[in-house]
């Protein structure tokens, strides 16, 4: 592993929000924001106007707080933009929809370099572009003088394309539990960064810029997925939400999960060996990869890219791993808890 390079100065006052001003910042940011296919009226008015082909709108919001969700000494501005967009775009995909637009609320100190904000906008635009989405509006305010932190509140809007939304509450006993996308990579990258290193680059990059499988959400919906969610808080934690909403037991098959996520061996095992950790802990409880977790009828064939990792059973709602309580397994692999707990 190698240590990260020291950062250069970040306080060019001539380029700060204080000097450039609110509307100067907005103009610079919008110049990098791209355009949304569904926008009839884009940024610049009191509100955007979007075409809604399906007649319904998928809507979701996430808030990213500096120091908790990102650090400017670990991630570039573009990284933060990618990550902020991905967290929301993945939620739309988990409903079986395709994202169409983002709204962004920003609170930042007055000495924030506008070049940093332009970088965030560029990262968001790059994450949205393959979906035909873009930032269509938002708001900027000065954060509290004593906080010094940047806060991004991102709302994503999406289109279902005529599909029924796939909810967390539709899993039924006998269904197959399946996953697509990475698990544990972001958590592994975070463990590396916390120890002052910046390699293996693959896991560090996965933490800075998650790569959710957006297209797999609508594909799963078309294939008859009965329930779905994105893995933002950890596999066990998010499976727990699905289990509770559906009133079922979700049993993760440990051997199948290992085959799907840790074979053949890769950077997770490399980092785990160096840190004396169990890579399964990251896979089971690590969040922010934004993989998709879904249940499918037992008689069907899983869509391409999805791997079966368990099944749905009758019983008191909860999550087990090969029959063992999820909380006990989390402790056994060294994670301590089943996933991220807000205010925990």
From TrEMBL:
Signal peptide: none annotated. One of its GO terms (biological process) is thiamine diphosphate biosynthetic process. Mg(2+) 2 binds at residues 62, 91. Residues 44-158 form the PurM-like N-terminal domain. Mg(2+) 4 binds at residues 46, 60, 91. It catalyses: thiamine phosphate + ATP = thiamine diphosphate + ADP. Its EC number is 2.7.4.16. ATP binds at residues 138-139, 168, 232. It comes from the Bacteria. GO terms for molecular function: ATP binding; magnesium ion binding; thiamine-phosphate kinase activity. Pathway: Cofactor biosynthesis; thiamine diphosphate biosynthesis; thiamine diphosphate from thiamine phosphate: step 1/1. The keyword RNA-binding does not apply. Substrate binds at residues 69, 288. Mg(2+) 3 binds at residues 46, 91, 230. It is an enzyme of class 2 (transferase). The keyword Nucleotide-binding applies. Mg(2+) 1 binds at residues 61-62, 139. Belongs to the thiamine-monophosphate kinase family. Catalyzes the ATP-dependent phosphorylation of thiamine-monophosphate (TMP) to form thiamine-pyrophosphate (TPP), the active form of vitamin B1. HAMAP family: TMP_kinase (MF_02128). Reaction mechanism of ThiL seems to utilize a direct, inline transfer of the gamma-phosphate of ATP to TMP rather than a phosphorylated enzyme intermediate. This is Thiamine-monophosphate kinase. The lineage of its organism: Bacteria, Bacillati, Actinomycetota, Actinomycetes, Geodermatophilales.
């Amino acid at each position: 592993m190698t240590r990260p390079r020291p950062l250069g100065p970040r306080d060019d006052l001539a380029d700060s929000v204080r000097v450039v001003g609110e509307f100067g910042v907005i103009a610079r940011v919008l110049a990098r924001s791209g355009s949304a296919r569904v926008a009839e009226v884009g940024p610049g008015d009191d509100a955007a106007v979007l075409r809604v082909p399906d007649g319904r709108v998928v809507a979701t919001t996430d808030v990213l707080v500096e120091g908790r969700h990102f650090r400017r000494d670990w991630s570039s501005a573009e990284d933060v933009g990618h990550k902020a967009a991905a967290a929301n775009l993945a939620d739309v995909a988990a409903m079986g929809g395709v994202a169409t637009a983002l709204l962004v609320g920003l609170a930042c100190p007055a000495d924030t370099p506008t070049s940093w904000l332009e970088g965030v906008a560029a990262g968001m635009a790059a994450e949205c572009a393959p979906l035909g989405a873009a930032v269509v509006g938002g708001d900027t305010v000065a954060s509290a003088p004593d906080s010094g932190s940047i806060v991004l509140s991102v709302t994503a809007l999406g289109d279902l394309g005529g599909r029924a939304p796939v909810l967390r509450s539709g899993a039924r006993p006998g269904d197959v539990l399946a996953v697509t996308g990475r698990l544990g990579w972001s958590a592994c990258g975070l463990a590396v960064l916390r120890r002052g290193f910046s390699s293996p680059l693959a896991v560090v990059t996965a933490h800075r810029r998650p790569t959710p499988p957006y297209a797999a959400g609508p594909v799963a919906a078309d294939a008859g997925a009965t329930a779905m969610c994105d893995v933002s808080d950890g596999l066990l934690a998010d499976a727990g939400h699905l289990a509770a909403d559906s009133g079922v037991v979700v049993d993760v098959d440990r051997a199948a999960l290992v085959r799907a996520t840790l074979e053949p061996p890769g950077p997770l095992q490399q980092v785990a060996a160096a840190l004396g950790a169990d890579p399964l802990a990251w896979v089971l409880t690590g969040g922010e990869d934004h993989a998709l977790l879904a249940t499918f009828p037992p008689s069907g064939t899983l869509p391409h890219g999805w791997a079966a990792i368990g099944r749905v059973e009758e019983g008191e709602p909860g999550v087990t791993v090969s029959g063992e309580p999820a909380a006990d397994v989390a402790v056994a692999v060294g994670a301590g808890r089943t996933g991220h707990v807000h205010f925990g």
